[in-house]
Design brief:
The chain is of the alpha+beta class. About 35% of the residues lie in helices and about 25% in strands. It has helices at about 5-15, 65-80, 105-120, 170-180, 190-200, 205-215, 225-240, 255-260, 265-270, 290-295, and strands spanning about 25-30, 35-40, 45-55, 85-95, 125-130, 135-145, 160-165, 215-220, 240-245, 280-285, 305-310, 315-320, 325. The strands form two sheets. The protein has a seven-stranded mixed β-sheet. Strands 1-2-3-6-4-5 form a six-stranded mixed β-sheet, with helices on one face. The longest helix is centred in the first third of the chain and has 18 residues, at about 105-120. The radius of gyration is 20 Å and the shape is globular. The structure holds magnesium ion. Magnesium ion binds next to strand 8.
């Protein structure tokens, strides 16, 4: 018997992909990107994505506020729309709830959900409710839209392209460590910052749309599993290799202070810690000026150049301070093999 533990999350996805789910000509992109991309009318496409959060897997009831869970469930889906360069529009939500759960808990969950929906102009158009014999399970599916000629897939990176990331890395991972009970002496403001980054991710919709409109982006993904893992997805889909300059990673002063206090390697956690929900994208080198000019305009977070795309087998190499390249083998999260990493 082969179990899901043996197969791993990505092995399972490959196995499903064998069915050739995208048989319809209107499915422009099926499995393998942040959203499915569906042909629509008038030169538009629909972007379709879904995410599930399960109690004890994605969150601990004892350590999470219901408002934050509601906010985050929508925000992570919005982030997948942002990763294609699109505009989030309509969502449906399914909830599986144990019968003895306090009703007020779900009221608070929906308060957070609607706060996020209002912020990003998303309508909650319906859903489903059911009884759960155990943990709470929450699934949200979201549709977005954009012009078909502007979609930023994972598959367009070419040798010579430059690699950029928005915002800062690792803050959410530090927040998760605090949630899980890691005891690190911290200023109250820094603790609050990390927990907020973890519980209330800010999907980069405005930046994603501006990047798509710029026409300079060749590939894009949002950071859900960590740079090392998510950049590997771009490499695999684009059939290229990537080199990251360790010294160039954007790290907040609070994050550097956290790593020093916790005695952990800031590079390692920044590259493998998930849930930053920043955008990771590649740009043609001769269009980099146009891209960098976007930063700071209209309140958009400035992108930071962190590396380059090269020809070669799909892999992510880390260039250390001495200029040496090392294979970076620590990977992101694999749902069926927690702690063992994905591909
Ligand atoms: Mg994604």
């Amino acid at each position: 018997m082969t179990t899901f533990k043996d197969l791993g999350e990505f092995g399972f996805i490959d196995r499903i992909a064998r069915y050739g789910l995208a048989r319809d000509d209107d499915v422009l992109c099926g499995i393998g990107d942040d959203c499915a991309v569906l042909r629509s009318d008038h030169g538009q496409v629909l972007l379709f994505t879904t995410d599930t959060m399960v109690e004890e897997v994605h969150f601990l009831s004892s350590a999470s506020q219901p408002e934050d869970l509601g906010y985050k469930l929508l925000a992570v889906n919005v982030s997948d729309i942002a990763a294609m360069g699109g505009e989030p529009r309509h969502a449906v939500i399914s909830v599986a709830i144990p019968p003895d759960l306090d009703v007020a808990t779900m009221d608070r969950f929906y308060d957070g959900l609607y706060e996020c929906a209002e912020q990003f102009g998303v309508s909650i158009a319906g859903g489903d409710t059911t009884r759960s014999p155990g943990p709470v399970a929450l699934t949200l599916s979201l549709v977005g839209r954009m012009g078909s000629d502007r979609v930023c897939y994972r598959s367009g990176a070419r040798p010579g392209d430059l690699i950029y990331v928005s915002g800062t890395l690792g803050d959410s991972a530090a927040g998760l460590e605090l949630v899980l009970g890691r005891d690190v002496p911290l200023a109250a403001a820094d603790r609050e910052h990390f927990l907020r980054r973890h519980h209330r991710p800010e999907p980069r919709v405005a930046l994603g749309r501006a990047l798509a409109e710029s026409g300079a982006v060749t590939a894009m993904i949002d950071l859900s599993d960590g740079v090392a893992s998510d950049l590997r997805h771009i490499c695999a889909r684009s059939d290229v290799s990537a080199v990251i300059a360790g010294a160039s990673l954007p790290l907040s002063p609070a994050y550097r202070a956290y790593c020093a206090a916790a005695e952990i390697d800031p590079l390692s956690l920044a590259l493998t810690g998930g849930e930053d929900y920043e955008l990771l994208f590649t740009v043609e080198a001769d269009r980099a000026d146009r891209l960098e000019a976007l930063g700071g305009r209209d309140g958009l977070p400035p992108p930071t150049r962190i590396g380059r795309i090269e020809a070669g087998d799909p892999q992510v190499l880390l260039e250390n301070a001495e200029g040496y390249l090392e294979q970076f083998d620590a990977s992101g999260y694999d749902h069926f093999r927690p702690g063992r990493g994905g591909r």
